[in-house]
Amino acid sequence: MKIGIIGAMKEEISYFQEKMESLETNGVGLVTFYTGTWNNHDVVISKCGVGKVNAAMTAQMMIDKFKVDSLIFTGVAGAINENLNVEDVVISTSSQQHDIDASALGFERGSIPMHDGPSDFEADQDLIEKAYQAASETLDGDLKVIKGKIVSGDQFIADKGIVRELGEQFNGDCVEMEGAAVAHIAYFNSIPFVIIRSISDKANGEAPKSFEEFVEKTAKTSAQIVERLLMKL
Ligand code: ADE
C-alpha cells in the first residue's frame, strides 16, 4: 500500500522531511516528490503550492507516476464553525469547492456543472475514523477534533461576512485552498482520501495575523496526526 501525502506549504511537509530516514527526491516536470518508507508504509510526499490547480496537478501526478493507493492532505485552515478555535482540528467528512459559480446559468453556487460526479466529495470512512482517532490521541489540553465539511477555493478568506456565507451556503466547518481539488481527483481515480486541517485562524479580519502566528505550530500538529494515522493503517 503506497500513501500519497500532500501539503501546500513548506511548513506543512517539513515535519516529514525531518522525521523520515530514507528520502529519495524525484522530479516530475517541475514538481518535487519525496519517496521513502515511514511507519512501515511506502509514502510519497510533496509540497504542491497554494491553490486548487497546484493541488489537483500534484494529486494526479502521485496517482499516475507513483501509483499511490490513497491520498492524505495535511495542513492548516480557517475556521467557519463558531465552535472551532485556533489549534482545533477538522477531519474531512466531505469537501466542496466554494468558488465554482455558474449560478448565471441556473446552477447552484458550488455545484460543478456538466460533470459525471458529485460536487461535494465524500472522504473515505476508514481514513476518517482512523484520522479522528489519531487526532484525539495527538491533541492535548482543551483542543478538540471534529469530523466536518471542508470547503476550498482560490482565496484566502479574511472577512466575517464571507465566513458566515460559507457556513450558511455550504454548511462548511473550515475553509482552505486545496482540499476539495484533491478530493475531486481522488473521486475520479477511485482512490480513498482524507483531509486533515488544524485551525490557524478564524478567516475573519484578524486572519492574516493569526495565520502568521500559528501556521508553523498548527501545520506541525496536522503532520503529527498524519504520523499517528500511518501507524493505524
Ligand atoms: N488556510 C488557512 N487559513 C485560511 C483562510 N482564512 N482562508 C483560506 N485558506 C486558509
Characteristics of this structure?
binds adenine; Rossmann fold; alpha/beta; 5-stranded mixed barrel
At a glance:
This protein has 233 residues and is of the alpha/beta class. The chain has a single domain (2-232), classed as 3-Layer(aba) Sandwich (Rossmann fold).
Shape descriptor: globular
So, the CATH homologous superfamily?
Nucleoside phosphorylase domain
Total number of helices: 6
Mean pLDDT across all amino acids: 96
**What small molecules are bound in this structure?**
adenine
Quickly name the level 1 CATH class. Alpha Beta
**How many individual domains?**
1
Write the CATH fold name: Rossmann fold
SS-derived structural category:
alpha/beta
Word description of this protein:
This protein has one domain: Nucleoside phosphorylase domain (Rossmann fold, 3-Layer(aba) Sandwich), CATH 3.40.50. The chain is built from six helices and ten strands. It has helices spanning 10-19, 52-66, 125-138, 160-170, 179-188, 207-232; strands spanning 2-7, 24-28, 31-38, 41-47, 70-79, 89-97, 120-122, 145-152, 174-176, 193-201. A five-stranded mixed β-barrel has the order 5-9-8-6-10, surrounded by five helices. A hairpin with a 2-residue loop joins strand 2 (24-28) and strand 3. Helix 1 packs parallel to helix 6 and helix 3 (125-138) packs across helix 6 (207-232). The longest helix has 26 residues, at 207-232. Adenine binds next to strand 5, strand 9, strand 10 and helix 6. Keywords: Amino-acid biosynthesis, Glycosidase, Hydrolase, Methionine biosynthesis. Its EC number is 3.2.2.9. It is an enzyme of class 3 (hydrolase).
